[in-house]
């Protein structure tokens, strides 16, 4: 087991990464304020892992309430969030009751947001079961829901007390979902660590084959980068914005195509290709850099081009991005592989030229 720490003073918390962690109640019990939890999961994950976790906790003397939600990005909304509140209130859950998010990024975001709001804040734990959640969404305290006018536009920064990443859960992950998680892993190499990017190109086959040692290293290294960035900029006032490489374009793809039609990681991959193309047009990346990036996405089973929504649609959806300041879209672009920057100084003609449909 590898253990990292997200260093946030009194709100610091550990990230445990390893195999067979789901029943390690010795890792969970120290983070409970009372022997009562509500496990929030979905209809896909529940048959696989809910009983294993719930039974282990009950055997340790913990009262467990189970909340099973519908699966999918399309359900990351007010209605589903309210189902959590309904269950918590009906179960007389108290301020010291801990919510446990058991699932992927949608469950983690919903549960974290519910924890931030219920009784004005209750503790919660992240137990991510997808690669994307293990390397990205479970770490850093971003929680929230989607709105018809934009993805993740309503939410809160609210840190978990613990992240428990059991690599064994990835063995039941569909290949498409695994690839979606690899998009976020690749992101860390692009924005922060060119050597890691090269390592990924060499080890992509082993990652897709679920080799335990290779996965452990990739997850640990990704989490270490994110933990370091979050520790310096918890609420995304500067450095943390770099973690959104590809997301401005990617969220436009998710919104424009309809939530759930493209997985988040697929949209991020396609969005990063657009960001790389724009970086190349800005004179920063070389065409060879863009080609290497696209080749790595193909090797990961990800799209290496973006859908043709039309220039106007892309501009409309990107105009609703959270990074818009004073009416100007702030982009995360690449100076080179391993170094990202944020900028609003993008000539309109270069932006339009890189968009599908131009």
Structural summary, described in words:
The protein is built from 13 helices and 11 strands. With 358 residues, the protein is of the alpha/beta class. The chain folds into 2 domains: 2-171, Rossmann fold; 175-354, Up-down Bundle (Dehydroquinate synthase-like, alpha domain). The strands form 4 sheets. Strands 4-3-5-6 form a 4-stranded parallel beta sheet, with helices on both faces. It has a 3-stranded mixed beta sheet with strand order 1-2-9, covered by helices on one side. Helix 6 (175-192) runs parallel beside helix 10, helix 9 crosses helix 10 and helix 10 (264-281) packs antiparallel against helix 11 (287-299).
Compact overview of the structure:
The chain is of the alpha/beta class and about 350 residues long.
Which range does the strand content fall in? Answer: 15-25%
User: What is the CATH topology descriptor of the largest domain?
Assistant: Dehydroquinate synthase-like, alpha domain
Order of strands, main sheet, comes to 4-3-5-6
Report the span from N to C terminus: 49 Å
Total of DSSP H or I helical runs spanning 4+ residues: 13
Write down the overall geometry.
globular
Question: Helix coverage percent of residues?
Answer: 40-55%
CATH architecture of the largest domain: Up-down Bundle
Record field, number of beta strands:
11
- Which consecutive residue ranges, at least 5 long each, have pLDDT under 50? none
